[in-house]
Design brief:
Strand order of the largest sheet: 2-3-6-1-7
CATH topology of the largest domain: Rossmann fold
Number of domains: 3
Helix content: 40-55%
CATH superfamily of the largest domain: P-loop containing nucleotide triphosphate hydrolases
Largest sheet: 5 strands, parallel
CATH class of the largest domain: Alpha Beta
Number of strands: 7
Shape: globular
Length: 362
């Protein structure tokens, strides 16, 4: 067991083991609490999800995990793999939204030497790497129809051809997918194949957003407070009553990922030994007011209304806010905004947004 798990407060140990002690203890033994914070829950919806996971993990059925950005879809996929019969085999992850369309097919299925300019040698794709194991396709709703057709063939025939090749490659792979988009709506829009959708959703797991799990908000917030306090070696005394009210009533558009970043920032800002108060949270004046803050922030948003109706400026403000929440990691900001990495990169250039942490700006 790692140092973090060993030092973790016993009271939290019991709370984390409330759901399924057999799974939880093994997770703590192998990974510690840090990566598997979704186990910290009182929600009946989350308990239902873990019951479902225990039933389906041992099968080879494909699983579709749906939910908003930041709810922990990848962690659910990790848990399915962890308790499956394939847990000692390869586990390969691919973010379908992180790669351009012309590269995704090669990434998934590999290519032969000379298949295209720059293909100097044969390359083994992710499906071959995952042979006899599991592949996790994150944000599959961003996949182009041509690649979707090839995924369908793998699921039906368990074989495919590399880009630029003619030889069939046979694979035995369990497929777990995730999407923050409504795939049925994408089918109606003509962006997603209905035959692939029905292959993928043999088992569907809908992960609720954090705002629908209010009983978990303070539990998870205190979990992260303890985590970051230990990492920073900085004692803190919980949250003030008003801070708890704000945390419970905030809409959490970025879900658990947003909460994690917010608490990390709060632990950095709070004075050692103090309880975290409203000023330590990075909530904008508008969010502070909407969440029930007693005193509005003294800034340009103090009236709870936007400072401009100019769409260009509003878009720039939202992009900057998403980047701040995600500590200027563009991939995470794109997830938070519900757009592709390419779209965000274009908008960053369009609005002239820069940051010292980005290499190209150094």
């Amino acid at each position: 067991m790692n140092k973090f798990a060993e030092e973790f407060d016993s009271r939290w140990m019991e709370k984390c083991l409330e759901i399924h002690s057999d799974i939880s203890r093994e997770l703590v033994k192998n990974f510690g609490f840090d990566h598997y914070y979704p186990l910290v829950s009182k929600s009946s919806k989350i308990k239902h999800i873990f019951n479902l996971i225990k039933k389906v993990a041992k099968s080879n059925s494909s699983v579709l995990i749906q939910g908003e950005t930041g709810v922990g879809k990848e962690l659910i996929a990790d848990l399915i793999q962890f308790i499956s019969y394939r847990n000692t085999r390869a586990y390969v992850k691919v973010n379908c939204a992180a790669l351009p369309d012309n590269l995704l097919e090669s990434e998934l299925f590999g290519h032969e030497k000379g298949a295209f300019t720059g293909a100097f040698q044969r390359r083994i794709g992710k499906f071959e790497q995952a042979h006899s194991g599991t592949i996790f396709l994150d944000e599959i709703g961003d996949m182009n129809p041509m690649t979707q057709a090839k995924i369908l063939r793998v699921m039906q025939d368990k074989e495919f051809t590399r880009v630029g090749g003619n030889n069939l490659v046979e694979v035995d792979v369990r497929i777990i997918t995730a999407s923050n988009k409504d795939l049925e709506q994408q089918i109606e829009l003509g962006n997603f194949r209905n035959d692939l959708y029905y292959r993928l959703n043999v088992i569907t797991i809908d992960v609720p957003p954090l705002r629908q799990r209010k009983e978990d908000i303070l539990l998870i917030a205190d979990f992260f407070r303890k985590k970051f306090s230990k990492e920073l070696q900085k004692p803190t005394r919980g949250f003030t009553d008003e801070t708890k009210t704000l945390l419970i009533n905030h809409s959490w558009p970025g879900n658990i990922r947003e909460l994690k970043n917010l608490i990390e920032r709060a632990v950095l800002m709070v004075d050692e030994g103090d309880a975290i108060d409203c000023d330590d949270l990075a909530l904008s004046g508008k969010d502070y007011f909407l969440a029930g803050g007693k005193e509005r922030r003294k800034n340009n948003e103090s009236n709870g209304a936007p400072t401009t109706l100019d769409l260009k400026q509003l878009e720039k403000q939202h992009i900057i806010k998403a980047l701040e929440i995600t500590r200027w990691v563009q991939k995470d900001a794109a997830d938070l905004l519900g757009i592709s990495n390419r779209s965000l990169n274009y908008k960053i250039k369009y609005h002239g947004i820069t940051h010292p942490a980005w290499k190209k700006n150094r």
